[in-house]
Amino acid sequence: MKKTVRLKMLKLHKLAVICLFAGICLSGCSKQADNQEKTSIRIGVSLYRGDDIFINNIRSELEREAKSYEQETGIKVNLDIQDAKGSQHIQNSQVERFISLGCDVLCINPVDRMDASSMIDQAMTAEVPVVFFNRQPVEEDMNRWDQLYYLGVDPKESGILQAGIVEKYYKENPEQLDLNGNGVISYVLLEGESSHQDALIRTEWSIQTLKDRGVPIEKITGGIANWERSQASALMEQWLKKYPGEIELVICNNDDMALGAIDAVKREGASGISVVGIDGVESGLEAVKEGTMIGTVSSNKEQYAKVMFSILSDKAMGRELDPELELENGKYYRCPQTVKEQE
Amino acid sequence: MKITKKKKELYFLILYEIILVLLFLASSTDLIIKERQNPVYQVSVIIGDSNDNDYVNFRKGMDQAALELNADVSFVSLYERNHEAQQMEMVLREQREGARAIVLDPVEAAQLDRLLERGQLEIPVILTGASMADHKAWGAVTTDYEKMGRMLGTEILNRHGTGQTVWLLEQGKGNWMNRQFEAGIQAVLSEAGCQAAYYNTGEDPDLASFFFTRKKQGEPDLVIACLDQESLLAAADRLAGSEPAWNHLAAGLYGRGTSVSLLNHLEQGQITGLCVTDDFTAGYVSVRTAVEAAAGEKKGKDTLLESWYIEREDLQDPAFEKMLYPIE
């Protein structure tokens, strides 16, 4: 009697082990089948503001990358691009919606880099990887999960390269920058948002590098124009009225604000004022070509979008990232930058 | 029979437990109170262009409808602009990928009819920029372009009189919208005895040759009505170009469209008058119609949206400002 019970128990154990093994095999197979059968990927993209020129340039490049990926692989890319209109609340809702619609991966340009934790929470719960870009979430947030990535340019490098443009221009044409010939370049500064890490670092390194390299500069005034052309234009107009004939150089944290300053200079009929920007957006490069801007620091937007899409598509397909991709600490990518100056 | 205190307590406990179970069922399951079904309708919007530059307001309306009506909307542009076969391939791909309805701005609507005739397309299609009266689609959200053309023709006559030849410019082979628009303009001009001449930009997409020839022939006060957005933008770019002698070559440049570049040219004065539509509403209504179709409602009809003629000063009008630059 005892023997029969023991036999029965043994059979049951065997059956359980077989079932467990079969279960593991089947789940593995179905996962493999999932990957093999994936004919489309869905990427939720949330932009901090849809009217930012630099962000729009990146967006266009990303769309181009998605199309060429579709043509190369035959895998449909559903790029759901939404504008958060400068509201973190709206962006949080967009992330919630992306997840509910089954996005495979998220691509977020955060409105408030200090407030990314709620979006990260949602993504972690749903196990949806996130690629942040242009506005870097704080390190504590980035370190919370190994499926978080960040792409952007190195703001310190931007500042140093911008200073290099001014330095070179000053050495070649000192009279073009020092208009009154007093041996000092009087400048005004147009800065991006105070909460954006790039604005602070670009300013710091641009000014410090100019001083370190012996370019004689003196600040007249400065203001925050939130990366916007219209705000920069309004500020510059005020300064031109307040300091007539004094401003010799306008240092801007981005091209859009530089273009705003140029608008004001044209409107006020001022002449000889040099303007320098950062970003290398199309309109900025056009201004350099036309000679209204002395130069800009241009990030390679094609490369930016290429790397971003490569991470997004690999994550969406459940693949390992391209081993040739060099990521700092396994999650940060800094896009290369070059200088574009007047010829 | 007397119920003892102990039994009373037991009955009370059982009743209490039953109430608890009922409350749990009511709140956590849909056994008692059925949860309202809220299906998500997958809708694909396929345009004939390779980018969305001319669809900015349309997309805003589309996104608004998607949020309000719980639709999952995919916006699809082509790899190459105006590629008929590619567009039909996209239509079939979206069907394969699970779209329940398609909003289509057709490059050639007859191609769609062929797909529907062959039974290759089983989901409802809502046309924009074409009338369903001529096609087999489920519905259409469009504008009366013939009426729009008549409106423009009248404005041209009011400003320039009948003594001037009106040049009708078009890029490429054109489409239903262009033909309707042209018919409207021509009808008004011929009723008034005004002459019209047609020019297809063809090999002269930036219109250099057109303007050069007219200038050489001594026609300085050209009146131009463009049938499509592409030729209008090319003409406006040419007039805004670096050759000052050409800046005043046209006495009047007219057309239709709502893209930012066209509105900028209107503001800067290269374009004299523009026929505009409410693209935000068009996007919203298109997706709403697609959701209705996906939900199994009976076949729709043409939804005709209004159009307006505006000039530079109208851009300051709050009503047009809100319509042409919607913030949502």
Write the layout of secondary structure elements.
The complex is a heterodimer of chains A (343) and B (328).
Chain A: H1 2-37, E1 40-47, H2 53-73, E2 76-83, H3 88-100, E3 105-108, H4 117-126, E4 130-133, H5 139-142, E5 148-153, H6 155-172, H7 174-177, E6 185-191, H8 197-212, E7 217-224, H9 229-242, E8 249-252, H10 255-268, E9 274-279, H11 282-290, E10 295-299, H12 301-316, E11 332-335, E12 337-341
Parallel strand pairs in A: 1-2, 1-3, 3-4, 4-5, 5-11, 6-7, 6-8, 8-9, 9-10
Antiparallel strand pairs in A: 10-12
Helix pairs in contact in A: 2-12, 3-4, 6-8, 9-10
Chain B: H1 5-28, E1 41-46, H2 56-69, E2 71-76, H3 84-96, E3 101-104, H4 109-117, E4 125-128, E5 139-143, H5 145-160, E6 166-170, H6 176-192, E7 196-200, H7 208-216, E8 222-226, H8 229-239, H9 244-247, E9 250-256, H10 260-268, E10 273-277, H11 279-294, E11 302-305, E12 307-311, H12 318-324
Parallel strand pairs in B: 1-2, 1-3, 3-4, 4-5, 5-11, 6-7, 6-8, 8-9, 9-10
Antiparallel strand pairs in B: 10-12
Helix pairs in contact in B: 2-11, 5-6
Largest interface, chains and sizes: A-B, 14 and 12 residues
H/E series of chain B: HEHEHEHEEHEHEHEHHEHEHEEH
Quickly give the structural class of chain B: alpha/beta
Q: Helical amount among residues of chain A, as a percent range?
A: 40-55%
Fraction of residues in β-strands of chain A: 15-25%
Q: How would you write the strand order of the largest sheet of chain B?
A: 2-1-3-4-5-11
Q: Which structural class is indicated by helix and strand composition of chain A?
A: alpha/beta
**CATH superfamily membership of the largest domain in chain A:** Response regulator
Number of helices of chain B: 12
Average the pLDDT over all residues of chain A and give the rounded result: 89
Number of self-contained structural domains of chain B: 2
End-to-end Cα distance of chain B, whole Å, is: 74 Å
Q: How would the global form of chain A be characterised?
A: elongated
* Low-pLDDT sequence parts of chain A: 19-35
CATH class of the largest domain in chain B: Alpha Beta
Helix share of residues of chain B?
Answer: 40-55%
- Tell me the number of strands of chain B: 12
Order of helices and strands of chain A: HEHEHEHEHEHHEHEHEHEHEHEE
